[in-house]
Amino acid sequence: MQKIPFHTDFSETSMNAIEYALKLLKYEKIDFTIMNAFADEAYKIPREHSLT
Fold first, then answer.
1. Domain count, the chain
2. What is the model's pLDDT at position 36?
3. How far apart are CA 38 and CA 43, in angstroms?
4. Cα–Cα distance between 40 and 29 in angstroms, integer?
5. Burial letters for 4-24: b for 16+ Cβ neighbours within 10 Å, e otherwise?
6. Which among 8, 18, 27, 33 could disulfide-bond with 14, CB atoms 3.0 to 4.6 Å apart, if both were Cys?
7. Residue 28 or residue 46, greater confidence
8. Ramachandran category for residue 10: left, alpha or beta (phi over 0 → left; psi -120 to 50 → alpha)
9. Is the pLDDT at 12 greater than 70, yes or no?
10. DSSP state string for 4-23
11. What is the distance between the alpha carbons of residues 13 and 30, in angstroms, rounded to a whole number?
12. Within a 10 A sphere around the Cβ of 43, how many other Cβ atoms?
């Protein structure tokens, strides 16, 4: 079984790509993982505390 990660921002374009992939591979045994990550302003480290 293949494992395919989908990295998405849940935009219309991303959702179209996921839908296309699912239709293209509908007869294959595949484990799809949909992932989303984002940076929230609340978690930004001030420049004076940065390691770089």
1. 1
2. 86
3. 10
4. 36
5. eeeeeeeeeeeeeeeeeeeee
6. 8
7. 28
8. left
9. yes
10. EEEE----HHHHHHHHHHHH
11. 22
12. 7
User: Token pair for residue 44?
Assistant: 């930004």
Distance from chain centroid for Cα 39 = 13
Q: How far apart are CA 48 and CA 52, in angstroms?
A: 9
Query: Dihedrals φ, ψ of 44, to 5°?
Result: -70, 135
* Beta carbons within 8 Å of 31's beta carbon, 6+ residues apart: 1, 2, 3, 4
What is the separation, in whole angstroms, between the first and last Cα of the chain? 42
Residue 39's domain comprises 2-49
